[in-house]
Each structure stands twice: as C-alpha cells, then as structure tokens.
Queue: 2 jobs
Job 1
Amino acid sequence: SYELTQPLSVSVALGQTARITCGGNNIGSKNVHWYQQKPGQAPVLVIYRDSNRPSGIPERFSGSNSGNTATLTISRAQAGDEADYYCQVWDSSTAVVFGGGTKLTVL
Amino acid sequence: QITLKESGPTLVKPTQTLTLTCTFSGFSLSTSGVGVGWIRQPPGKALEWLALIYWDDDKRYSPSLKSRLTITKDTSKNQVVLTMTNMDPVDTATYYCALGWGGYDASFDYWGQGTLVTVSS
C-alpha cells in the first residue's frame, strides 16, 4: 500500500517561511492535496492538485511537487497559521491516502 | 451553498454495528465527477480515510478496514450511509464526511463538522 511521510512538527518564527514536506514514492506523478486543521475544527483544504489555492485561501500558501517530495510553503507565517497540516493523494491500489500530519508552531 | 452533516449514535458498545449518515445539500451525487467520502480521526491522532462512493456508484474502501465497511448512497435523499461492523474501543473517533469534486483523485473540498463516536461498554 502507498504511504505518505510527514515530519511530526515544524516550527517557524513569526513572519518567516514555513515548509512542510510530504514524502512518497514517486509522489511527483500524483496530485497532492493539503489540509489545515485547527483544534476542534474540521479540516480545511488549502492547496489542491499540488499548487492550486481554493477561493479564500491567502496567497501566502503555496505548494509544489516533484520526485519523491511534495512541499507546502507558508510565507510570512502568522499566529493564525498554527495548526495541523495533512497531505493527501489518490493511489490506484489504496485509493485515498493521508499523511500522518505535521503540527506547525509559530514562534 | 454546499453543506454536509454527519449523524448517528454517539455511543456504541463493542461488537455492535455503527451506522452513520451523511446528509448533504448544494450538490447532487448523480453529477459526474462527484464523490463523498468518510474520514475518521481518533482523539489526538491523524486523519484516516475509510471509504468513498462516487457518482457512478463505484465504491472504494480502506484496505485495512474493507471487511468491516459498507458505503451506500441515496441520491433522492441526498444521503450517504456508512456502516462499520464489529466496533471496538479503538474505533472511538470523530467521523467526518466530505465532498470530493473532480474525479477519482479529487481533493475533499468540503467537510462536515464531524461526529464523535465513542465505543464503550
């Protein structure tokens, strides 16, 4: 079965750039989606199909995907960006796969 | 406006069968490319995908839970139902339903608020 690997935690200074990675075998050939989840809330889609932002998501959120790693980049990090972030792909053998999640801390 | 809402029991006993209903509005599950999935999250843990049903009635299940899950849709009622057999305390989690729009590898664009299910005797 297909697996996605995320770091458990990432820290970023206020106003700096945070990068959250999602590793998977040849993930660059798949569409990667990213979700933000704040405590007590349902996940919210922040990036779809590698690098597209849904309506209402700030331009500070961007994504890339190549080789074996997809990356969610959050520029000019704000306190309100503190959350858990999950990557997700669709795999022909496993269907939907989520990464284990990354807790973003803004210092 | 697209909304999804999960409903079902908040407490089930071990070995019982859980039945959850996702009632949605603002879209039709008969529209090409639309899918509704179920995702759960144990307290303090990561998201885990469970099942997905598509507009054409194609169904996909998590390989690790496939033997326990059944997903169905009622297009006329705008509902998707998930049943999970042989519940165990480790199945205690918040269960979400979510809309995927754009084919088999679409993202989950809209989510319900989730419903917490506790498995305990």
Note: Chain A has a mean pLDDT of 97.
Job 2
Amino acid sequence: DTAVSQTPKYLVTQMGNDKSIKCEQNLGHDTMYWYKQDSKKFLKIMFSYNNKELIINETVPNRFSPKSPDKAHLNLHINSLELGDSAVYFCASSRGAFNSPLHFGNGTRLTVT
Amino acid sequence: GENVEQHPSTLSVQEGDSAVIKCTYSDSASNYFPWYKQELGKRPQLIIDIRSNVGEKKDQRIAVTLNKTAKHFSLHITETQPEDSAVYFCAANSKPGPKGTSYGKLTFGQGTILTVHP
C-alpha cells in the first residue's frame, strides 16, 4: 500500500482553468504538507495542516486554497491557473509538525499551457 | 526565518570514491537535520537524519556530521556506486512560535546533483 498517495500523477491544463490535486495518507500522521518543486528542483513549502488546522501558510497566491477534510486528507485547489504554476507538487505527511521525517507522495506534475 | 545553504550544486565522482555535501543553516534553535535523496522522476526519500544532541550518525555507507557551533552539517557517502546518482537535499527545522503565529517548518537546501561514473 502506498503510504502517501496523490492524484492525479500528471495534469495538463490551459491558463485560466481551475484544477484540484488530492492527497491521502494511511500512516496515521497528524501533519500534512504541500510542497512545490520548480524546474530548478527547489523544494518550497506552501501549506501545512496539523490535525486539520492550518499552521503554515507561506507567501502563496490566494488562487491556491488547501482543504483538509480530516487528518488523513489534504487537497489543493488552484484557481485561474497561470503559466508560472507549472511545477511538480508534492504532498507529504509527518508525525508532529517540525521534528520528524517527511513522507512524500509521488508528486503531481502540473503543466499549464 | 530559517535559511539553508547547500554546496556544491553539482558533484561528479568516480565509482568507489567518496562524496561530501555540505549545508549551513541560520536558525540557532534548529534541532533536526534530515537528508533526502530524490532519483529522477521520483519522490524525495529520507536517507538519514540527525538531531542536535549528537554530532555524528552513520548508516552503512552514509554518515552525517553536525557542528552546532558553526551551524553546519554534512553528508558523507563512501564507496559510491552508480545507483547513488540522484539529487540530494539537506533540510533544517525551525521551532514553532507561539500558537497562532508561525509554526515550525522544514526548510530545504537547494539540492546537489550527484553523478557517480562507473
């Protein structure tokens, strides 16, 4: 069983569209994250939820809206997609918010044309 | 906030040689330092981590050292093999602020592309 699973794996869409990425973890972790990896491979945190509560909200355009219906799920909705949103988005989870290993999903490669 | 600098950005070695990747961090309160390996097209995976109460940790061919005074930590890979070729990331945490303000988080270095030539 995949510990952190995210869907879809690939997402190709046009500018201006709205899209969602879903993430689920079966590790029993209480904290989940969204990271963005750009073309230069830099991993930057976007959001983090601890027990369904938003605890990290980096400088991300408000077109990005995370939603955590429960501790095991963290979804990412993106409105009005722009070319610069093209990247690989990784979901991750951990036990505790800042001092334990992150378990990453396999990533969603988003291409905006 | 935490700032993590990683060097070198690329590293090329011959099979059997050692590889060393270095990172510095800015937050003196940081106490958790993991290293991740990301193969091409795959997800980052933890390979080793160290906490601030120890200076060195080893797991087979991989070791990590931590110098809290100088605020730097390093990854050492001995007897490198072609399958060690990947992007390696260091990271450091920052402690949370009071509830309702900035929570602790893990900040990653810029990554090192390691290539091991057969």
Note: The mean pLDDT of chain A is 92.
